[in-house]
């Protein structure tokens, strides 16, 4: 897909979680991983730690929004969850591009009428394989989740799947794009995260995940896909129009 023309597009990162502090020096926090994933593509980034209650003033404060992963569940009663869902519905109504990863994938689905729950099938950790429509039949990406989207919103089209995760990626026309796996995670970070947080996993699963975290992933192709989506020349509505349409987006 290749890099598109540098247009200096401002992307707001809605940070919903943090990497373990002892991994920051080597790998950076979650927002830094997205800056690295999309580096050299003409984007300018600003981070809003929404998990601390720090939100943008307007959905138009950036030309596109990216929602990070998190160790929290989208169905948990944290005080910043409902305001984030409201912000996403308003951005969606305004036509400001939205990209969600893992938790971001899940909260977008929940905000727009889908359902997320702790998956009865357990955890997906390590490098997993996905069929990505129109891109790769065998994409390799790092996963780390137990929660899943189990009912997609009516507006969403399934564009990636795996035997373990039915709704691995969703596209909402030109308005939103989301992935359950982590294109921003390198195998090296996945291995270090496994050492830091792997005690929460079944021993056999942790061992299998460790073995999978070798070799190349399909991150470059997914980064191209995200760039192409963000560059689609979205034309936002006026604030009154966006607020009126937001009322019709059912949670």
Describe the structure concisely.
With 251 residues, this protein is α/β, with parallel strands linked by helices. The protein has helices at residues 24-27, 30-37, 81-94, 103-111, 187-197, 203-212, 219-230, 239-246, and strands at 9-14, 43-48, 64-67, 98-101, 115-118, 124-132, 136-145, 147-151, 157-161, 169-172, 176-179.
The Cα radius of gyration reads: 17 Å
CATH architecture: 3-Layer(aba) Sandwich
Low-confidence stretches: 1-7, 233-251
Count of discrete domains: 1
Number of E strands: 11
Main sheet: which strands, in order across?
A: 2-1-3-4-11-10-9-6-7
How many DSSP H or I helices?
Answer: 8
Helical percent range?
Answer: 25-40%
Overall form: globular
CATH C-level label: Alpha Beta
Describe the biggest sheet?
9 strands, mixed
CATH topology: Rossmann fold
CATH homologous superfamily descriptor = Class I glutamine amidotransferase (GATase) domain
> What percent of residues are in strands?
15-25%
Cα(first) to Cα(last) distance is 34 Å
SSE string:
EHHEEHEHEEEEEEEHHHH
Average pLDDT score: 90
Structural class comes to alpha/beta
Domain Glutamine amidotransferase: 83-187
InterPro entries: ChyE-like, Class_I_gatase-like, GATASE
Pfam family, one: GATase
Keywords: Glutamine amidotransferase, Transferase
């Amino acid at each position: 897909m290749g890099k598109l023309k540098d247009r200096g597009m401002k992307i707001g990162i809605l940070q919903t979680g943090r990497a373990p502090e002892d991994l920051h020096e080597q790998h950076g926090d979650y927002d830094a991983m997205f800056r690295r994933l999309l580096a050299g593509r003409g984007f300018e980034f600003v981070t809003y730690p929404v998990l601390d209650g720090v939100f943008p003033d307007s959905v138009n404060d950036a030309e596109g929004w990216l929602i990070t992963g998190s160790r929290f569940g989208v169905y948990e009663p944290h005080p910043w969850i409902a305001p984030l869902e409201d912000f996403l519905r308003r951005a969606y109504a305004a036509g400001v591009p939205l990209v969600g990863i893992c938790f971001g994938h899940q909260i977008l689905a929940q905000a727009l009428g889908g359902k997320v729950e702790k998956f009865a099938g357990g955890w997906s950790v390590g490098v997993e394989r996905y069929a990505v429509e129109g891109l790769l039949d065998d994409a390799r990406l790092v996963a780390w989740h137990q929660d899943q989207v189990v009912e997609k919103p009516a507006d969403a089209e399934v564009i990636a799947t795996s035997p373990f995760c039915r709704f691995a990626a969703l596209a909402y026309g030109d308005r939103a794009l989301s992935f359950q796996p982590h294109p921003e995670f390198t195998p090296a970070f996945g291995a270090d995260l496994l050492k830091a947080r792997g005690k929460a996993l079944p021993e056999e699963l942790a061992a299998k995940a460790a073995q999978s975290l070798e070799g190349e992933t399909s991150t470059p192709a997914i980064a191209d896909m995200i760039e192409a989506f963000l560059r689609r020349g979205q034309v936002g509505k006026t604030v009154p129009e966006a607020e009126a349409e937001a009322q019709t987006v059912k949670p």
